[in-house]
Design goal:
9 strands, 3-methyladenine DNA Glycosylase, Chain A, 213 residues, 17% helix, alpha+beta, 9-stranded antiparallel sheet, 25% strand
Length: 213
């Protein structure tokens, strides 16, 4: 119904490219389907906002694996966050799923999120992961295999907005300002929209971050 499963090679690319290409794709778990409307890239190897910036830990272990797996962590001890691992094994990169639109499983989402339908229902990374019923036990789960949590092809976004990432005050000035956040221009389920601009007006640094500086 939501298209084919995205193959492993889809993820084996720079996180910046994968983040842009994830817009419009569909996350599926049981009866819940969510169309991705906003994403953030966390690149390898010198992105100071990346969880892998200080090396391999028990928490970020999934990020060091092959692309196409989930990386789920809990923010502030409360909110689960879903990331899609990108690049190749050993490179420690991923894409945060920031927002989405519910396509099915509305009653299930209401039980998990409360009856708060509207443009802000799934606008925010904690809301997306909560709607899917995720926790850190999903870290390392393959998104390209049927069952559990899946990522399907959906309908790619036609017009894209781009801008700086959110909530990374600890990162370097370069990384705080880098245009690594993407959103579907046609969707209302987008956070901090005022800081985004049409992609066609932005020249993206597609080379690895250690070569950009």
């Amino acid at each position: 119904m939501w298209g084919d499963l995205l193959p492993p090679e889809f993820y084996a690319r720079d996180a910046l490219v994968v983040a842009r290409d994830l817009l419009g794709r569909v996350l599926v778990r049981e009866d819940v389907a969510i169309r991705i409307t906003e994403s953030e890239a966390y690149r390898h190897p010198k992105d100071s906002a990346n969880h892998c910036r200080a090396g391999r830990t028990k928490r970020n272990e999934a990020m060091w694996g092959k692309g196409g797996h989930a990386y789920v962590y809990v923010c502030y001890g409360i909110h689960p966050m879903l990331n899609v691992v990108s690049d190749t094994e050993g490179e420690g990169a991923a894409v945060l799923i920031r927002s989405g639109e519910a396509l099915s499983g509305f009653q299930t989402i209401e039980k998990r999120r409360g009856k708060r339908r509207g443009k802000d229902w799934l606008a925010g990374p904690g809301k997306v992961a909560q709607a899917l019923g995720l926790d850190p036990s999903f870290s390392g789960h393959p998104l390209y295999l049927p069952g559990g949590l899946e990522l399907r092809s959906g309908e790619p976004a036609k017009e894209i907005l781009v801008g700086p990432r959110v909530g990374i005050d600890y990162a370097s000035p370069f990384d705080r300002e880098a245009p690594y956040r993407f959103a579907d221009a046609s969707s209302q389920a987008v956070t901090h929209r005022h800081a985004l601009r049409p992609l066609r007006r932005i020249c993206l640094p597609l080379t690895p971050p250690n070569k950009v500086r």
